[in-house]
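Anyone else keep sequences and C-alpha cells together like this?

Example one:
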Amino acid sequence: MESSQVAVFFDFENVAITAEEVYGRFDLGAIMTAAEQWGRCTIRRAYCDWTGFESYQQDLIEHSVELTQLFRYSARHRKNAADIQMVVDALEAAFAHPEIATFVLVTGDSDFSAVARKLRAYGKIVVGMGLRQSTSEVLVKACDHFVLYDTLIEPDTRTAAHRLERARLLLLGAMRTLLPQVETDVVNASQLKVMMLKMDAAFNEAELGYRQFRNFLEAQSDLVDLKMEDKVLWVALKPSAELAPYQDEMLTYRVTFSAAGLRLMDPHTRTGILQDLYHLLRDAPATYTLGRAVLQLKAQYDADNVLRSREEVQDVVRLMKYPDVFRDPPQSWQLDHLTLQPGLTAQDFVDHCECAYLMALIEKNITIQPDLLALLIFGTLDQEARVERLADIAQRTYAGKSAGRPVTDCAASDWRADFQAPLLQEVLRDLDAITLEDAPSLARATELNDKGLRIRTTDFEQARLYFLRAARMMCELLAANEPGASRSDLAWYLASYCAASAGAYFFRFDYTRAEMYYLAFFVLAKETEPVWDKVQRLVEPLVSFYFTIAANRHQEMLEHPPGRTHPARIAIALYMHHNLNVRQEWLTLAQEMYATNPAIARMVIQRLEVFENTTQIPGARATREAFQAIAAESGEAVQNPGNRG
C-alpha cells in the first residue's frame, strides 16, 4: 500500500460549510491523514471560491494542496463550475497518470457518483470522504470505500465508545462460536471477520478508526493473542478474556433486542431520524402510512445529501410500532394513515419510541440495569436517569397494551389474559391437554419450535405436535416468571400450531375444524403485534387455503392451486364461480375473516384494486365491491378490531 499513488480531490465548499456548522471548523489534517493511509498522495487539489474561505488557505498550503479558484458569478453557477472542473481534472488524471491507483473524492454530493463509477470502470479504486449530514447514499454506493469525516474526528466520545464496546462483544461472540468448530485453539483471522459480519453486518473496523482488521485485533490485546504463520494471521482467545458480569448482561440485552427486531445503533442517528419522523407526521396528519413515511424521509435525506440508508430509517421507524403515540391505534401499518396524539411534543415522541427497548425487556421479564442499558443504548454511563425515565414510560405503556390492566397485574404468569378470544378457546383446550415429556426450558422450547418450522410444509401432524409442546412449555415458563419467557413467543408458537392444524384438517377434508383453526390463526396474526414479523409469510397462503374451503365443501375444483396463488385471485375465482353455492360460501367465509382480522381482509381488497386497475382481471371489480360491502356491514369490527381477538 505504501508504494501506491493517490489523487485527492476536494469539493471544498461542500464539506467545509457543513463541517463548520456541525463541528465549528473543518479539520483538513484529519482528511489528509486518512487519505495517506491509501498511499502516497501525489495529486492534491481543492476547488472553491477562496474569497470566502481565506482562513483555510494557509492550512491547505501546509498540506501541499493545490488551490483551484472558482470565481463567483452566482451560487448555482459556482456549484456547477466546481463540479465540472473537478470531474474534468479527475478523469484527466486517470488518463495522464496511469500509475495512480486510488482516487479520493472529498465530497458528499451525489453529482459525483457518475465520475466515481467511471473511475471504477477504468480500474481505479475510489474512496469517498464526507460528512454524515451532507452525504448522499447514492455517492456512498458508487465508491469502493467511503470514510465518514465524523468518525475521523469524533468530538463526542459516546458514539465511539458505543461502537467499540459493541465491536468487542461481537469479537468475543464470534470467537466463542468458531472455537468449537476447529480442532486447535486458534481461528483464522479471515474466517473470524466473516463470522463477525454474519453476526452483525454493520461491523466496520474503519469506522472505529482502524485501517485494517488486523489493526483492530491488535488493539484488543486484552482479549486476543495474534500470531503469523505462513502468511496467515491466527487469533487465539486469551484465558483471561471471560465475559465480565456486565458483559453477560449486555449479551442478554442484545439477544433480546435482536429477537424483538430492534437494532442498536448510533444514538445521534436514531434520535435525529425520530425527530424528523415526528415533524413529518405532525405537519401532515393522516397523510402517511408507515411505509410511505419511510420513503418520504429517505427521499428528503437524499435530496438534502444527508447520509441515511433506507435500512437505518426502517430500523428506527420500527421503534414507533411499540409505544402508544397515535390518536387512533392503527389496524395495519401498511394501510392506515397515521396521526399523532394531540399535544405530543418532539421529546415525548422520542422518549416513547426509545422506550421500545425497555418494553422488550419487560415483556421477557428481564431485569433492567440502568447503568448497563445507558452504555448499550446511549453509549455513555451518564444517561442512567434517562434510562430510568424510559423504563417508567415502558411500564405504563406495556400495562396499557395489556388490556388496561395495572402494571402489577401484567406479570408474565398472567399470560391467559391475552388469549381470551372465543375463537382461541379450543386452542387453549388443546394446550391444557398436552403432556410434556421433559422439563421446561427456554432452550428446549426453542428447539421444539425449530423442529416444527423445519417440517411444517411436509408433515402437518408432527409439526403441530412440536408447536403445541413448545407452546405448553412456554406456558410453564411464563407461570414460573422465567426470565426470557414471553407472551409474544407464546403467540408465535400458538399461531404456528393453528397454521399446521388447519393444514392437517384441510387435507383430511374436515373443513369445519380447518376453518376453526384458520380463524384462530387470524386472531393471533395481528399486523400491529410483534408476532406478525414471525408469521407474515404464512398469511397469504393460509388465506388462500381458507378461501378454497368454499369450493371444496361443494366438491368443486379451482383452476388455481391455493398454495401458489394470491388470495385475491382465489377470491375472484370463488365470487365469479358458476356454482352460486360456492359464491355464497365464500361470502360467508370472507365475512368471518373480516370480523376476525380486518387488516388482513383489507390487504386482500387492496390487491383486488390493483388487479382491477392494472392487469384488469375479469371479476376483480365485482369481487372488490362485494368484499367492500362486507366491510361496510362489519363497521363495528372495523372500529373495534379487538372484539373477536
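And example two:
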Amino acid sequence: MQLITFLGFTGLVAVIAYLSTKNTDETSSDGYFLGGRSLTAGVIAGSLLLTNLSTEQIVGLNGQAFTEGILVMAWESLAAIAMVVTAVFLLPRYLKGGLTTVPQFLGRRYDTFTKTLTSGLFLSGYVVVLLPIVLYSGAVAFSAMFNLPEVMGISRVQSIWVGVWGIGIIGSIYAVFGGLKAVAVSDTINAIGLLIGGIMIPIFGLSYVGDGSIVAGFSEIMASNLEKFNSIGDSAASVPFATIFTGMMLVQVFYWGTNQAIIQRALAAKDLKEGQKGLILASFIKILGPLILVIPGIIAFHIFGDTLAKADEAYPRLVAQVLPASLVGFFAAVLFGAILSSFNSALNSSVTLFGIDIYKEHFNKEASEKQVVKAGKIFGVILAIAAMFIAPLIDNAPAGLFGYLQEVNGCYSIPILTIIVVGYLTKKVPAVAAKIALGSGVILYSISQFILKPHFVTKALAKAEAAGITGDELRYVETGAYPHFLHVMAILFLMNVVIMLVIGQVKPRQTDFEAKYTRQVDITPWKYVNQVGILVCVIVVAIYIMFSPLMMG
C-alpha cells in the first residue's frame, strides 16, 4: 500500500508537469530556460520554497535543532527578510535588464571574462558541493527512514549508491529534458505536499508526546526542554547571535537574490508584479519554516534524548516513530519530490549558465537558440553523471552536512555577491576591480577556513587538553580559537567592497555604466510590496523577541 501511494503521487506530479509544459516552445532560450517568462506568483513561490527545501535542510537543520534548539531557526526566519530585499531591490533591476542569468548582468556591467568567471564559480559550486550533497543526503534519508538495506537485502553503502543514482536519473529527466517550466510546475505541486507532510510530523510528534493531545505535548516539551527554546545563540552555538548582523544576512541575500538556482524562478515571472508577489508569498511561508525544519528536531530530542548515534538521525527516527503507517507512502513521495526539486533546479540552472554564458559566448557565437538549448542539455547530462559519482564519496564527510554546506559555499557566494552589489550601486568601478574581488574573495576565504582555522583550532584544543579542560568547555575553546565563518564572510565582503571602490577611484571606467530597459516584461511594481515587506520584517523580529531569554524568563 505504501509503495502504491508513493508511486501514485509521484506519477501524478509527472503527468501534471507534462501536461502543463507540452505547449511551451522549449527549443527557444526563453522557453527552455525561463518557461517562456510566464510564471505566476503561486508557481514562483512554490518553486522557490521547494528548490530550497531538501533533505540536507529537512534532515540537517532538524539535526542541529536536536543538538542546539530553536536558535538554528535563523537560517529560515532571516531568509524571509532576504526575500523582501530581493523583491524590492534586485528583482526590478533583473527584469528591467531582461536577464536570463545573473552573470549576464556582470557581462554588461564589467566584461565577458567576469561573466564567464562567475558562471564557472557557480558551476563548480554546484557540481562539487550542492548537487552531490543533495543526492547523498536524500539517499541517506531514504535508507534510514525506510530501512532500505533490509528491505532490498543490500548493504548500507549499496543502498546509498542505489538512492543516489535513482534520484539523479529521475531528477535529470525533469531538469534536462523538461526545462524550467516542468521543474517549476512539479515544484509547486510537491511544495503543497511537502507543506502538508512536513507539518504532519510535528503534529503527530506532539500528539505522541501528549498521549493524543497536541497542546499537552507542546506543554510537556516546553516544560522539560526550556533551554531548547532560546533564540539567542551564545559564542559556542552554530549560529551565534552576533552573526545575524554580519555574515548571516549576506549569505541569505546571496542565496535568495543572486544564486542562479533560486533567482531563476523569479526571472521567469510574467511581469514584475507577479515576481514580487511570488517572493513575498514565499517569505510569509518561510516564516513558518521552523515548524518543519526546527520543531521536529526538538521533539526528537525529547523522545530519544542522547540515544541517537548521530544528530542527523533525529528526523528519520522521529518520522518512523510517530507517523502512521498509512501515511508513510505519501510522506515518502513528498520527501522524494523535495529531493528531486533541489537537484533538478540546480541542474537546470547549470544547464542555463553553460548554454547562455559559456557555450554561446566562447564555443559558438553564431549558435541558434535551438543549438544553445541542445548544448546545455548535453552538458547537463555530463554534470549529472559527475555528481552521481561524487555523491556516495561524501559518506565519510564530517557530521552536520547543513553547516558544512553553508561554510563551503562561502568560497564563491560572498565574492559573487560583492561584485553584484558594487555593480548595481556604482557606475565607475571597472572590470579589473571585479576580477580582483572575485580572486581575492575565493583565495582568502579558502586560506582562512581550510588552512588557518584548522591550525588555530588544533593548537587551541591541544593546549586546552594539556591544561585538563574536557567536556562542554572544549566547545568554547574550539569556537573561540578562530572567528565564526559568518564573521569571516562579512570581513571579506567589506574588504573587497573597499578594494573595488578604491580601484574605481584610481582607475575608473571611461564611461559611466547605464543599465538598459529591454522591455521583455512589464516592470510596473506591485503597489503593496513595500508595506507587506515591512510587515514580514516586523514578524521576524517579533519571533526573535518572543523566544528571547527576556520573554522566556
